[in-house]
């Protein structure tokens, strides 16, 4: 039985993880942390708490699952590592330098951390397919669609997709003319690594969406579109379960669920 702590337990994703932990025969929900709904009873022995360190120390969670906010996630992860609690991180908004620092801390402390921009198996496959297609197309752009309550843009999934694509291609604007934006931002944001592999990412925020992404590849005479839609948050739970079980058995730092599929 894996003892689970959920941080952001009253949020849209956190509440789904709480249900997973309560209903999965291999899991036991031992603590739930959120700054909202403190005292709310989630199951027989678990009420929502707002003191992160105390909750984890008192309840001896094996793995904590974090779906909180970009503004607090970096400090939260440092707390998990300090306490020796393995973590599965679904909160996005971490910078590349923060991810590198977390990797060093995880390895030096021998405390496992999985950071996954997306837990949908279909979305992970979409990223894998986009990475493979990048070997054969020199022009590509990413369009990501989310609900209008998402606080970070572009999404962690789109950034991770761009990173995977860049491993196979360092020029996604072959033949493009010099551009002038008459309205700033009309061409979206430009993601690059070490001055190479620039790729446009367009972020759409609108009620009605949960999460969708499309990667558009082009070459002379043809267009390839790789598209994935998410219609509810339950679809992420199989990926969360996979991540929790993997990190429970392994003290690794992992960025991206594709690395354990």
What's the short version?
The chain has helices at residues 12-23, 52-59, 73-83, 96-109, 121-133, 156-166, 237-249; strands at 2-7, 27-33, 41-43, 46-49, 63-66, 86-89, 113-115, 139-146, 189-193, 196-205, 211-219, 222-230, 253-255.
CATH architecture of the largest domain: 3-Layer(aba) Sandwich
The H-and-E topology, N to C, reads as: EHEEEHEHEHEHEHEEEEHE
Average pLDDT level: 94
If you compute it from the alpha carbons, what radius of gyration comes out, rounded to the nearest whole angstrom? 19 Å
Helix percent band: 25-40%
What is the CATH C level class of the largest domain, in words? Answer: Alpha Beta
Strand line-up across the major sheet? 3-4-2-1-5-6-7-13
What best-fitting shape do the alpha-carbon axes yield? Answer: elongated
Would you mind describing this structure in some detail?
With 261 residues, this protein is an alpha/beta fold. The protein has 2 domains: 2-115 and 233-259, NAD(P)-binding Rossmann-like Domain (Rossmann fold), CATH 3.40.50.720; 121-230, Dihydrodipicolinate Reductase, domain 2, CATH 3.30.360. The chain is 31% helix and 29% strand. The protein contains 7 helices and 13 strands. The strands form 2 sheets. The chain has an 8-stranded mixed sheet, with helices on both faces. It has a 5-stranded mixed sheet with strand order 9-10-8-11-12, with helices on one face. Helix 2 runs parallel beside helix 3, helix 3 (73-83) packs parallel to helix 4 (96-109) and helix 5 (121-133) runs parallel beside helix 6. The mean pLDDT is 94.
């Amino acid at each position: 039985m894996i003892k689970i702590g959920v941080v952001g337990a009253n949020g849209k994703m956190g509440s789904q993880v709480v249900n997973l932990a309560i209903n999965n025969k291999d899991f036991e929900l031992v603590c739930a942390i959120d700054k909202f709904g403190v005292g709310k009873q989630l199951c027989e022995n678990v009420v929502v708490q707002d003191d992160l360190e105390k909750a984890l120390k008192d309840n001896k969670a094996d793995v904590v699952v974090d779906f909180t906010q970009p503004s607090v996630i970096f400090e939260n992860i440092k707390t998990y590592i300090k306490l020796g609690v393995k973590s599965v991180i679904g909160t996005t908004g971490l910078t590349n330098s923060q991810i590198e620092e977390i990797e060093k801390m995880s390895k030096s402390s021998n405390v496992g951390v999985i950071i996954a921009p997306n837990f949908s198996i279909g979305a992970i496959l979409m990223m894998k397919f986009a990475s493979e297609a990048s070997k054969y197309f020199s022009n590509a752009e990413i369009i990501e669609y989310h609900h209008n309550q998402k606080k970070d843009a572009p999404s962690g999934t789109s950034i991770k997709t761009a990173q995977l694509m860049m491993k196979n291609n360092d020029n996604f604007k072959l033949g493009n003319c010099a551009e002038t934006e008459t309205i700033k931002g009309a061409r979206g944001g430009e993601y690059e690594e070490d001055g190479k592999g620039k790729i446009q990412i367009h972020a759409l925020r609108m009620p009605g969406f949960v999460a969708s992404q499309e990667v558009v590849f082009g070459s002379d005479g043809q267009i390839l579109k790789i598209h994935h839609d998410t219609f509810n948050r339950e679809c992420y739970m199989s990926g969360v379960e996979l991540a929790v079980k993997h990190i429970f058995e392994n003290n690794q730092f992992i960025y991206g669920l594709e690395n354990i599929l």
